[in-house]
Design goal:
The complex is a heterodimer of chains A (about 375) and B (about 130). Chain A has about 375 residues and is of the alpha/beta class. In chain A, about 35% of the residues lie in helices and about 20% in strands. Chain A has 13 helices and eleven strands. Chain B is mostly beta strands and about 130 residues long. Chain B contains one helix and eight strands. In chain B, strands 4-5-6-8-7 form a five-stranded mixed beta barrel. A three-stranded antiparallel β-sheet of chain B has the order 2-1-3, with helices on one face. In chain B, strand 1 and strand 2 (about 35) form a beta hairpin. Classes of the chains: A alpha/beta (about 375), B mainly beta (about 130). The interface of A and B includes residues 133 and 195 of A.
Chain lengths: ~375, ~130
């Protein structure tokens, strides 16, 4: 997209159920790890984009005494991580900064579960007036409605949802960083998990995680020799659905932000879905992964369930998806962990879960009631 | 929903519910009906707004059965069903609401439903949907 700008460093903390560290300590640890990964001095960072509502730019800038002035935040929920790659590039291309860190840190598992985090989403008055009185208050409950429509229109089944959960868990067995590493899941385990928001049961839900992740984007001339090859953002875009704060009266529930964002990315990158060697899809719940595979045009509408069940998104399949285990089995770092996995795949450092010869990888984000973002990353300079 | 916390844009809806009626907004300029409430007409951007009564009859557009409601004041009422209903009067208008049904009743998208107004725990009327016999 923007010439002369690249992802130069990625880093994270451990992903756990309960961290003894503060949110700001987790954030700083991830930023320092990303700077070390890049091989740059942390003070080269002159812009901070925090994600998730728990960590602030001040947490990072104050602790590290960063000299920069650029701060920004995308109000896009889970679509922010990928949207922020674009935002960082725009800031750099526009001269507002030269080296920007995108950082997510939260203690979602031990302190701020999703039921609290959603209270910072837009549309709170509408939710309070027309939705909360009937007990419709969480993403699982919202998205389960879309899932049921898809089941009705295309014959998507619970077995298809199970395939997503099982594939993510199998991938996590190849990733020692994953919260579910060493904890394989069977179809029986999935079926036995408690029903929470029918059709979603426990293992249709992503994990809650304490931890932090950071990605550094820099102008080529702003940083010297790097420790790893630059990864370019070949194209990025954000899309929003009709009536972003209201699902109920949206004319078409299947058309989401990603539907337009993916078209924009393919056009900007001059890369099609068939050119992508892997995809990192925002898997907040099992069905959302199927939905996004279709809206990003990897599969025709209605085909994602059967093709996932047939193994097409496994590591050895036609389109490996979420080789790290995703939000469902690696951990929930707002999808910034998806960006990190794409970078490592493109560097070729993923060892036994490496997608051999990967050149183009799509990464998506999903937030709120269908906000979407997508980027195609590449190691082809 | 109590009047003390009602937002002005939504208050006419809850006042109507209190009288066992369902109303939606209608543009005072072009006549387009809209839901949920918005400060202007999304088509012509006029701010003049009327409230129009609609019949509480429609079809099931989708639903979710909530088995865990940690956040909700309804947490002890699980499992309960939340439904989206497309109105017979104007299928482009959909209401979210509770759906009352026998525990073993099968639901299907497109099923006819109708509204009734039932008091919640503190006696405030709320619209609930039922499968039409």
């Amino acid at each position: 997209m923007s010439e002369g700008i690249a992802i130069v460093g990625v880093g994270e903390t451990e992903y756990v159920r309960s961290s003894p560290k503060s949110v700001s300590a987790l954030a700083v640890e991830a930023v320092l790890n990303a700077a070390a990964d890049a091989g740059i001095a942390p003070r080269a960072i002159d812009g901070v984009i925090p994600i998730g509502g728990q960590v602030t730019a001040d947490d990072v800038m104050s602790a590290l005494a960063l000299p920069g002035h650029f701060v920004a935040t995308s109000p896009l929920g889970g679509a922010a991580a990928v949207a922020d790659l674009q935002l960082a590039e725009l800031a750099i291309a526009g001269g507002a900064a030269s080296c920007v860190v995108v950082v997510l840190a939260h203690k979602a598992a031990s302190q701020t579960p999703i039921s609290q985090r959603v209270q910072s989403l837009p549309g709170q008055v509408l939710k309070r007036e027309l939705e909360a009185p009937f007990g419709w208050e969480t993403p699982a409950q919202w998205y389960a409605m879309i899932c049921r429509r898809h089941m009705h229109e295309f014959g998507t089944t619970k077995a298809h949802l199970a395939s997503v959960a099982l594939t993510m868990r199998a991938h996590a067995q190849l990733n020692s960083r994953a919260m579910m590493f060493g904890r394989p899941m069977t179809a029986e385990d999935y079926a036995a998990s408690p029903m929470l928001a029918d059709p979603y049961q426990k293992f249709d839900f992503s994990l809650e995680t304490d931890g932090a992740a950071a990605v550094i984007i820099a102008a080529d001339e702003a940083v010297g020799r790097l420790r790893a090859p630059r990864i370019r953002v070949k194209g990025a875009a954000v899309g929003r659905p009709t009536s972003p704060d209201d699902l109920t009266n949206r004319p078409d529930w299947l058309t989401i932000g990603l539907t337009s964002a993916s078209r924009d990315v393919y056009e900007r990158a001059a890369i099609g879905p068939e050119d992508c060697d892997a995809a990192m899809i925002y898997d907040c719940f099992t069905f959302e992964l199927l939905h996004q595979l279709e809206e990003a045009a990897f599969f025709p509408r209605g085909d994602a369930g059967p093709r996932v069940a047939a193994g097409e998104i496994r590591l050895e399949g036609r389109l490996p998806v979420n080789t790290h285990g995703g939000l469902l089995s690696e951990g929930h770092l707002g999808g910034l962990n998806h960006v990190i996995e794409a970078v490592r795949q493109l560097r070729g450092t993923c060892a036994e879960r490496q997608v051999n010869g990967a050149r183009y990888i799509a990464v998506t984000g999903w937030g709120g009631l269908g906000d979407g973002s997508m980027a195609i990353l590449t190691n082809q300079n | 929903m109590t009047a003390s916390v009602a937002d002005p844009e939504f208050a006419p809806f809850w006042e109507a519910v209190d009288q066992a009626r369902l109303v939606v907004q209608e543009c005072g300029a072009c006549g387009r009906r809209r839901w949920p409430p918005r400060p202007v007409c999304s088509r012509c951007h006029a701010t003049e707004t009327r409230w129009a009564e609609v019949r509480g009859a429609g079809t099931l557009y989708s639903w979710v059965v909530v088995h865990r409601a940690g956040l909700s004041e309804l947490r002890d009422a699980v499992p309960f069903t939340v439904a989206v209903v497309a109105l017979d009067d104007d299928p482009a208008i959909r209401f979210l609401g509770g759906l009352s049904r026998a525990a073993d009743a099968e639901l299907a998208i497109g099923q006819p439903v109708e509204v009734s107004f039932e008091p919640d725990g503190v006696g405030t009327l709320r619209p609930y949907w039922h499968v039409r016999p």
